[in-house]
Amino acid sequence: MANITFVKEKKEVIAADGANLREKALQNGIDLYTLKGKLTNCGGYGQCGTCIVEIVEGMENLSPKTPFEERKLKRKPDNYRLACQTLVNGPISVKTKP
Description:
The chain is α+β, with helices and mostly antiparallel strands. It has helices at about 20-25, 35-40, 65-70; strands at about 1-5, 10-15, 20, 50-55, 80, 85-90, 90-95.
């Protein structure tokens, strides 16, 4: 099991190993999107890059970055991920809308 702590929201979510970070956030009422992101998001298909999150702890418990993430996030800090492309395999702490 994976515990996902959403730092800004002060909320902890329990997920099965291999759970998609975006899906778990949305299922638990966590808002990942800025206004622009709400208008332009692709619905979790990894095409728009609007579901950026900052991983505060637990990077080692995530799936490797996809090629799309590598391109979209190349000018961002190493601990930024796209929630729709990230699978959680252990405890992590996340900041939304960094």
